[in-house]
Amino acid sequence: MARHIVATVDEIAPGQRRVVSVNGREIGIFNVDGEYFAVGNRCPHEGASLCKGRVVGLVEASEPGAYQYSRRGELIRCPWHGWEFDLRTGKSWCEPDRTKVRSYELKVEPGGALVEGELRAETFPVSIEKQYIVVEV
């Protein structure tokens, strides 16, 4: 992998992002409370500009009406269909092949028992070198 300087740390404040082009690929650089992450700017579902989506946290429920909000700013929501991807891993929390209107067997499990989806956004290693943000592609 070649290394590419894409920005300085001053150019992307906490909670902000910047889309850069590296070797013809659009890559979103995200600052999540001082940690930087890079994901491909293409939703694996239908190709939307993923990095234009809203940055959100994780909402989980242990029972109906009891919600916990965590991991603020660590998920990106596709602007087209709302699929969410973890900025740390690129993994989706959706399983679109199972989205159907039909009845299923029901059981109650804690929110932590949910399984991550198989779709994954492309991610790239990011490092900081003397105030420069460097992405490896």
Automatic annotation (TrEMBL):
Residue spans crossing the bilayer: none
Question: Gene3D superfamilies this protein is in?
Answer: Rieske [2Fe-2S] iron-sulphur domain
Q: Sorted alphabetically, which SUPFAM superfamilies does this protein's record hold? A: ISP domain (SSF50022)
Q: Could you confirm whether the keyword Iron-sulfur appears in this record? A: yes
Pfam families the record matches: Rieske
PROSITE patterns referenced in this protein's UniProt entry, alphabetically? RIESKE (PS51296)
In this protein, which residues make up the domain named Rieske? 4-115
**Which domain of life does the UniProt lineage start with?**
Bacteria
- Which UniProt key words apply to this protein? 2Fe-2S, Iron, Iron-sulfur, Metal-binding
Q: Which PANTHER family match?
A: 3-PHENYLPROPIONATE_CINNAMIC ACID DIOXYGENASE FERREDOXIN SUBUNIT (PTHR21496:SF23), FERREDOXIN-RELATED (PTHR21496)
Q: What is this protein called?
A: Nitrite reductase/ring-hydroxylating ferredoxin subunit
What organism is the protein native to? Answer: Bradyrhizobium algeriense
